[in-house]
Amino acid sequence: MHPPADPWGEAVARFLGDLLDDVAIDLVYAPDGPPNSTRPGPPAQPWSAVLPGPTGWSATLNLHLSPGSRALYGATGPTDLPSEFTDLPGAAARAIDRITVGADPAAGGVYPTLAVALHDVVVAEILAEKVSERSVADVPADVALLVSDTLSYVTELSQRRVEGRSLTHGVVIGPATTEVAERRGQVSYPADVRALKRTPLLFDGLRSCLAVGPSGAVQGEITRRSLAALDIEDLLEPLEEALGDAGALVAAASRALNGVGFFLAADQAIWIFDQGQPLMLRRGGRWKAIPFASLIGGLAELVGSQPLAALVARTALLASLDNHGAIIAVVDSSDRVEGVVEPKDRYDVARSGEGEGPAEFLVHRLLHADDLDVATLLRLAVIDGATVLDSLGQLLAYGAIVRSESSQGEGARTAAARTLSRVARVVLRVSEDGPIAVFVDGAQIATLL
Predict the structure, then answer these.
(1) For 208-230, what is each residue's pLDDT tens digit?
(2) What share of the chain is helix, strand, coil (3-state, %, to 5)?
(3) Do 389 and 299 contact (CB within 8 A), yes or no?
(4) Which residue, 26, 71, 157, 328, is most buried by CB atoms nearer than 10 A?
């Protein structure tokens, strides 16, 4: 006995597979029991959820990480999702519930516009759950509607131009607290500010952003000065280093308010931040997950250092956002790159002052890259070639030609990353189109963005 078509289940499964790379998705169907039998409740596991299936059937959505991603994110089994996205199956079930109330599955496939709407509803459910679970006071019954309306407003702004330039905007939705925040005239977001031309100009997400409670009441603006007054250690500066000016203020505000931040960038991308960390990005109409904290944790296990993992991950993220290609590798020590990296590209050898060396050594000796930060590493990483660090975070080579093995029907950058990964602890390959691939022992184990 085969189940009937389930266009909504299939649509949400395709979206989750596109949102979070390296995840396998199963939809399992079972016929409903007799009329008086008990319909199965939601599974207790965070990697599984019961969806509203076709008439007469129940559908169970299961998510499984690929073996490579399990190793990267420190998962103990295939069903351990990155900690930032444990609510994905549940959010999908709630989203389908919202959209399909009263719908007739026999009416045919899902309209493409409705499928896109479903994507935004899934995202809204994920973010609303984060706000609700952190609240210590009562929250409105439907925070997801506020999140959805916020996404709609930010999307509208992305399609506007003022005086010939694209708009930017920033807002943070924080959890409900026991304290009653000052509310200026009971302004409701985004309803009361939607039609005002000056809203995105005043709260551009670069110099100022809005703070909003879970009811939609605006609680005030957040500026760099007001963040400094909070006296939270390392609140803004590390985020400016990791993200640049674009997005750092909203990210810092989301950390300070323990909430979720929305930042519309000048390139029309929509960033979602959660407690200071990038969580999701919508670019070119597609949502992509950024399990950034989990990525840094996984890289730390591979390279043996949390600060080094953070340095490499943040640099790769910035290169991706700037549409630059890059290869960043971490090896145990300098002897691991002998015979793999061309001698002329060795920064460490040039700085040691041993012999005259090739002409490139003259430029190597002019650089001050002995104490790397994100800005310096990014400047070097986007030069064509590979950038190699040792496990102590010292620069060994940049712009390096890698003596690659024969290509497996892939681009030169991928072939170089694969070859380098055979002698490295880990290699990150950044495509000019955005995706970041992680290589270990000659194999690509994970992809994000």
Answers:
(1) 999 999 989 999 999 988 888 88
(2) 40, 20, 40
(3) no
(4) 328
**Residue matched to tokens 């991603």:** 69
Which of 3-12, 96-105, 346-355 comes out lowest in average pLDDT? Answer: 96-105
User: Crossing angle of helices 306-321/292-303, nearest 10°?
Assistant: 130
Burial of 417 from C-beta contacts in 10 A (0-12 / 13-18 / 19+): buried
How far apart CA 335 and CA 63 sit, in angstroms, is 41
- pLDDT of 79 over the 80 cut: no
Q: Of residues 38 and 265, which shows the higher confidence score?
A: 265
**357 shares its domain with 213:** no
Give the residue carrying structure tokens 């640049």.
244
Whether 121 is in a domain gets the answer: no
pLDDT at 171 over 60: yes
Report the candidate in 435, 193, 179 with the shortest Cα–Cα distance to residue 324. 435
* Residue 341, beta-bridge partner list: 402
Residues 6 or more apart whose CB falls under 8 angstroms from that of 159 comprise 268
Residues 83 and 163 in one domain: no
Mean pLDDT of 276-297: 90
Count of structural domains within the chain: 3
Q: Are strands 57-65 and 161-162 parallel, antiparallel or unpaired?
A: unpaired
Does 123 map to a domain? no
Question: DSSP letter string over 40-84?
Answer: P---SSTTEEEE--STTEEEEEEEEE-HHHHHHHT-SSTT---GG
Q: Which domain holds residue 136?
A: 129-290
Rounded CA separation 135/214 (Å): 9
Per-residue pLDDT tens digits for 80-139: 888 888 888 999 998 888 887 655 555 556 778 788 888 999 999 999 999 988 887 676
Residue 115 is given by DSSP the state H
